[in-house]
Amino acid sequence: MRPSVLLFDIGGVLVENAGFEELRRMCPEISGDPELRLRWLGSPSVMAFERGRISPTEFAKQFVDEWRLPLSPDAFLGEFESWPRGLFPGAADLLDALRPHYRLACLTNSNEVHWAARPGLRALFHEIFSSHELGLVKPEPEVFQHVLEHLSVEPDRVAFFDDSPPNVEAAAAAGMRAHQVVGLGELRGALERLGLLP
């Protein structure tokens, strides 16, 4: 049975995000990308901010202290604002082609700073789920249950696309058809392979 909902992560799938590249520059002592991603995902300041529990100013103070960055909170926040680079070329056209055939939704771990930098995103989807508005983050099982309840859809009618293996695993555990893709090329390839392109 074909899915009725296509659920997309944003950063790394539809939007180019330079966050980990910038973090590597700020933290050259961290040995590699997997270690950096694990530290980011386990960061108390990041989790509080992406759950909408602290302000941007408080996040910057806590993050600079936690990561021992050699810059002021204000300087860090100025750089942090620029991490999302915008939609990958062709992403909006792809969503426009899919929208008449599926219910399009996004599920993203985000925050009020980066969400404010993406003002046109809401128009691309039928439903928006962002961690800073929900108070829940991926890969927590609760966030996937919330999405399913809100959409009033059976899990196997949802095809989910994310660049993070833990998020894909959690979506699959919730019963969704979950696929790991990095960037628009892999997303388009997965949609074609699954027979979901119009």
Question: Which key terms come to mind for this protein?
Answer:
single chain; 198 residues; alpha/beta; Rossmann fold; 2 domains; five-stranded parallel β-sheet; two-stranded antiparallel ribbon; globular
Runs in which pLDDT lies below 50 for 5 or more consecutive residues are none
Give the helix proportion (percent range): 40-55%
> Count of helical segments?
11
Structural class: alpha/beta
For the biggest β-sheet, the strand order reads 5-4-1-6-7
- β-strand amount: 15-25%
Number of structurally distinct domains? 2
Terminal-residue CA separation: 16 Å
CATH fold topology of the largest domain: Rossmann fold
Q: What is the string of helix and strand elements?
A: EEHHHHHEHEHEHHEHEH
Number of strand elements? 7
CATH architecture group name of the largest domain:
3-Layer(aba) Sandwich
Average residue-wise pLDDT: 94
Task: Please tell me what the overall shape is.
Answer: globular
CATH class of the largest domain: Alpha Beta
Q: Describe the sheet with the most strands.
A: 5 strands, parallel
CATH superfamily of the largest domain: HAD superfamily/HAD-like
Roughly how many Å is the radius of gyration? 17 Å
Give a written overview of the molecule.
By secondary structure, the chain is an alpha/beta fold. It folds into two domains: 5-16 and 85-193, HAD superfamily/HAD-like (Rossmann fold), CATH 3.40.50.1000; 19-80. It is 46% helix and 15% strand. The protein has eleven helices and seven strands. The chain has helices at 19-26, 33-41, 44-50, 56-67, 73-80, 91-98, 112-116, 131-134, 141-151, 165-173, 183-193; strands spanning 5-8, 15-17, 84-87, 103-108, 127-130, 158-162, 177-180. It has a five-stranded parallel beta sheet. Helix 7 links the parallel strand 4 (103-108) and strand 5 (127-130). Helix 3 runs antiparallel to helix 4 and helix 4 (56-67) packs across helix 5 (73-80). The longest helix has 12 residues, at 56-67. The mean pLDDT is 94.
